[in-house]
Amino acid sequence: MLKGIHQKDYTAEVAKLADLFSVTYDPAMIKAAVDDMVTHIEGGTVTQDHVIAVSVVDAIFESCSAFGTVGLSVGVTSQLNNGAKILYMLVMFMGRVGPVAFAMSLTAKPDDNKRKIMPVGHINVG
After folding, report:
1. What is the SS3 assignment for 58-124?
2. The pTM is what?
């Protein structure tokens, strides 16, 4: 049973929203995806006649949303190929960590910590 902080039962409200959050895939789309995977695994060439075009505005919105890690989407992420999804994952990681911190982590030398002098102090607690 779903209860909030006021001990109200939210099961009925969640059931009303179930259709909003459910995703239904067309069986033909699933069959095409499985056929493409099997063809690719067998070493065949996969034709991309069922690729869905993404507008430039949607691509820019998705990229900015990924970098800002805000969680907004126009719904084209599920239609992207695996390479584009990996690219968006890297953009999300860079946006979360920050470009400067990410660049510093890539350029840091392993022996940098040996030259740093850490302060020593005694803190009395209590």
Report:
1. HHHHHHHHHHHCCCCCCCCHHHCCHHHHHHHHHHHHHHHHCHHHHHHHHHCCHHHHHCCCCCCCCCC
2. 0.44
pLDDT digit string (tens) for the chain, length 126 residues: 445 556 666 677 666 666 655 556 677 777 877 888 888 888 888 776 656 677 888 888 888 888 888 888 888 887 777 777 888 888 888 888 888 887 887 787 766 556 677 788 888 887
Within 10 angstroms of residue 126's Cβ, the number of other Cβ atoms is 2
Structure tokens at 89: 């994952």
